[in-house]
Amino acid sequence: MRHKMNEIQWCPGCGDFLILMAVKNAFKNLGIESKDRVVVTGIGCSGKLSQYIDGYAAETLHGRSIPFATGVKLANPRLTVVAIGWDGDGYGIGLGHFLHACRRDIDIVYIVCDNENYGLTTGQASPTTPVGAKTKTTPKGCQISPFDPIALAKSAGATFSERAESKDFKWLTAKIEEAIQHPGFAHIDVLQDCPSFKRW
Length: 200
Fold this sequence. Notes:
Elements: H1 16-30, E1 37-41, E2 56-59, H2 65-75, E3 80-86, H3 87-93, H4 95-104, E4 109-114, E5 117-118, E6 124-125, H5 149-155, E7 160-165, H6 169-181, E8 186-191
Parallel strand pairs: 1-2, 1-3, 3-4, 4-8, 7-8
Antiparallel strand pairs: 5-6
C-alpha cells in the first residue's frame, strides 16, 4: 500500500483482493520496479487498486482510466502502464475509450474487474449483467442481453483480449504477465465475485 495511507476498503470476499495480489505478483515476477510502472484506475470498487500498490498511480474520473493511461504512455514510453477499471466504469461510460484503444493498439494493459453490476453504488445492472438477474434497477430481472467484452474488443482490432477469473489466481497472474509483455494494447476481462450485490 502506498505510504500506508489507506486501509483496504472492499467488502469481505470481494474478487478485487485477488486481482490486487495478482497484479502485484505479476510486477514482482517480471521484476518491474515501482519507479518503472504506473497504475491508473477509474471509479468503482476497483478504483482503489491504484492506492494499494507501491509506485506511481492515479485514480481518475469515471470511465477515463484508458485516456489517462494513454497520455502517460505517450509521455514516457519506457514505463509499464496498467489501467484498471470495472464493467460499469469501462464498458459503460468508458466504452468509447475502450474501443478506440483496441483500434490504436497503444502499448498499455487494461484489466477490467467484471462483477456484472455497479457494486460501488449498491448493485445496479451493468453492461455485463446477465439476462434475468435481479438488481436494484432490474427488480423483475434484467431484460437486456449483456455484450461480450472479448468479442467486442477483437472486433475493434484488439491484438490481445483474454478472459480470466479472480478465483483462478495462478492463471490470472500468468495472464497479467503475458499482457504486460504483449507489444500493444492488452485487455483482460476478469470475472469476479461481488458477495454484497451479485446474487445470481
